[in-house]
């Protein structure tokens, strides 16, 4: 798998074009990184050098690209020293960036309906996947969960989704405006959201589909571990192919240090895979923790 990536990871001096703060220490950053913008696929990430003094880079998922303008959008939460240093980067600064890295989500089968389930800073790969599918007339629905205000413009949805209750009326505006259905979940009492965890919202939706519709579904997810466990359970309940994007602590980020390995069981054999280049996306059934 990783061999296919040789020669496809670039080092670019990514110029910060916009950097917007949102509630809950969330930041949306647009950088100019033309090589990454052209090559990136949903599920891949970039590895950023957050300051001149810190050699260790930080991995951040790609949320959206514009290959023509050469831009890459990222959403991150400032949680520790590295991401706080990143949040101090100003428009015009250059951020050394490696990308795009990792095995992306497989969204090649356009006969499927991709059910995209993102939580917190796991939402970005779902936005990217929805955008990519839309560009190819693919079928998808996005469910996003957050316990702080969403860092996106929202608007009431004009489409009804099976199994989704009346309170959950808001959708991500950029998706809604392109007829990509989406709904939001939160336990924080946010207006217009389903009250509860986002995997439960996705479950309600799946349970309300006909068997024929459900059989076309593939679950793709990124978010905190407890959320991924819940998504894996939903996948098992409905016997659906389920792919999870893992977050693991990383050092090199390009397959050289084995600092990010995760145990898999493939054809009955235990293996250790590097999350950075063999993942971050894995089929849930291969991961003993989620199987
Ligand atoms: C493939 C991938 C994609 C990611 N995408 C995003 C994203 O789109 N937005 C976002 O906000 N965050 C994302 N993360 C998590 C982000 O990389 C961490 O929040 C960040 O590295 C924390 O660094 P820090 O120095 O601020 O925090 P500290 O806690 O001070 O970090 C100390 C060390 O722990 C590592 N670390 C801490 N938390 C995590 C974590 N959750 N996952 C992996 N390593 C961690 C750091 O890399 C660093 O080496 C992603 C992680 C991975 C592996
Ligand atoms: S972080 Fe070095 S191999 Fe993955």
TrEMBL record:
<feature type="binding site">
    <location>
        <begin position="82"/>
        <end position="83"/>
    </location>
    <ligand>
        <name>FAD</name>
    </ligand>
</feature>
<dbReference type="InterPro" id="IPR017938">
    <property type="entry name" value="Riboflavin_synthase-like_b-brl"/>
</dbReference>
<dbReference type="InterPro" id="IPR039261">
    <property type="entry name" value="FNR_nucleotide-bd"/>
</dbReference>
<dbReference type="InterPro" id="IPR037117">
    <property type="entry name" value="Dihydroorotate_DH_ele_sf"/>
</dbReference>
<keyword id="KW-0408">Iron</keyword>
<keyword id="KW-0001">2Fe-2S</keyword>
<dbReference type="Pfam" id="PF00970">
    <property type="entry name" value="FAD_binding_6"/>
</dbReference>
<dbReference type="InterPro" id="IPR012165">
    <property type="entry name" value="Cyt_c3_hydrogenase_gsu"/>
</dbReference>
<feature type="binding site">
    <location>
        <position position="276"/>
    </location>
    <ligand>
        <name>[2Fe-2S] cluster</name>
    </ligand>
</feature>
<dbReference type="InterPro" id="IPR017927">
    <property type="entry name" value="FAD-bd_FR_type"/>
</dbReference>
<dbReference type="GO" id="GO:0006221">
    <property type="term" value="P:pyrimidine nucleotide biosynthetic process"/>
</dbReference>
<feature type="binding site">
    <location>
        <position position="257"/>
    </location>
    <ligand>
        <name>[2Fe-2S] cluster</name>
    </ligand>
</feature>
<dbReference type="GO" id="GO:0050660">
    <property type="term" value="F:flavin adenine dinucleotide binding"/>
</dbReference>
<feature type="binding site">
    <location>
        <begin position="58"/>
        <end position="61"/>
    </location>
    <ligand>
        <name>FAD</name>
    </ligand>
</feature>
<dbReference type="GO" id="GO:0046872">
    <property type="term" value="F:metal ion binding"/>
</dbReference>
<dbReference type="InterPro" id="IPR008333">
    <property type="entry name" value="Cbr1-like_FAD-bd_dom"/>
</dbReference>
<dbReference type="Pfam" id="PF10418">
    <property type="entry name" value="DHODB_Fe-S_bind"/>
</dbReference>
<keyword id="KW-0813">Transport</keyword>
<feature type="binding site">
    <location>
        <position position="260"/>
    </location>
    <ligand>
        <name>[2Fe-2S] cluster</name>
    </ligand>
</feature>
<protein>
    <submittedName>
        <fullName>Dihydroorotate oxidase B, electron transfer subunit</fullName>
    </submittedName>
</protein>
<keyword id="KW-0249">Electron transport</keyword>
<keyword id="KW-0285">Flavoprotein</keyword>
<dbReference type="InterPro" id="IPR006058">
    <property type="entry name" value="2Fe2S_fd_BS"/>
</dbReference>
<keyword id="KW-0274">FAD</keyword>
<dbReference type="InterPro" id="IPR050353">
    <property type="entry name" value="PyrK_electron_transfer"/>
</dbReference>
<dbReference type="GO" id="GO:0051537">
    <property type="term" value="F:2 iron, 2 sulfur cluster binding"/>
</dbReference>
<keyword id="KW-0411">Iron-sulfur</keyword>
<dbReference type="GO" id="GO:0016491">
    <property type="term" value="F:oxidoreductase activity"/>
</dbReference>
<comment type="similarity">
    <text>Belongs to the PyrK family.</text>
</comment>
<feature type="domain" description="FAD-binding FR-type">
    <location>
        <begin position="2"/>
        <end position="107"/>
    </location>
</feature>
<dbReference type="InterPro" id="IPR019480">
    <property type="entry name" value="Dihydroorotate_DH_Fe-S-bd"/>
</dbReference>
<feature type="binding site">
    <location>
        <position position="252"/>
    </location>
    <ligand>
        <name>[2Fe-2S] cluster</name>
    </ligand>
</feature>
<keyword id="KW-0479">Metal-binding</keyword>
């Amino acid at each position: 798998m990783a061999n296919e990536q040789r020669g496809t990871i670039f080092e670019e001096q990514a110029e910060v074009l916009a950097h917007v703060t949102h509630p809950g220490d969330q930041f949306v950053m647009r950088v100019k990184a033309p090589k990454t913008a052209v090559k990136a696929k949903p599920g891949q990430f970039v590895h950023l050098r957050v300051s001149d003094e810190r050699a260790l880079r930080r991995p951040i998922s790609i949320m959206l690209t514009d290959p023509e303008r050469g831009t890459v959008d990222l959403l991150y939460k400032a949680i520790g020293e590295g991401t706080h240093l990143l949040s101090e980067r100003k428009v015009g600064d250059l951020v050394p960036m490696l990308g795009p890295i990792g095995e992306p989500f497989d969204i090649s089968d356009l006969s499927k309906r991709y059910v995209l389930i993102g939580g917190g800073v796991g939402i970005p790969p779902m936005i990217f996947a929805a955008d990519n599918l839309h560009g190819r007339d693919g079928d998808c629905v996005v469910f996003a969960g957050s316990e702080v205000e969403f860092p996106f413009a929202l608007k009431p949805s004009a489409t009804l989704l099976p199994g989704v209750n009346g309170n959950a009326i808001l959708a991500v505006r950029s998706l809604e405006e392109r007829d990509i259905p989406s709904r939001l979940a939160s336990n924080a009492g946010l207006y217009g959201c389903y009250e509860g965890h986002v995997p439960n919202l996705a479950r309600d939706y799946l349970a309300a589909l006909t068997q024929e519709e459900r059989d076309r579904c593939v679950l793709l997810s990124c978010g905190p571990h407890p959320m991924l466990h819940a998504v894996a359970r939903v996948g098992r309940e409905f016997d659906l192919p389920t792919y999870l994007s893992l977050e693991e602590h990383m050092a090199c980020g390009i397959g050289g240090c084995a600092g990010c390995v995760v145990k898999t069981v493939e054809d009955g054999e235990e293996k250790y895979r590097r999350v950075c280049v063999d993942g971050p996306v894995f089929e849930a059934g291969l991961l003993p923790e989620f199987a």
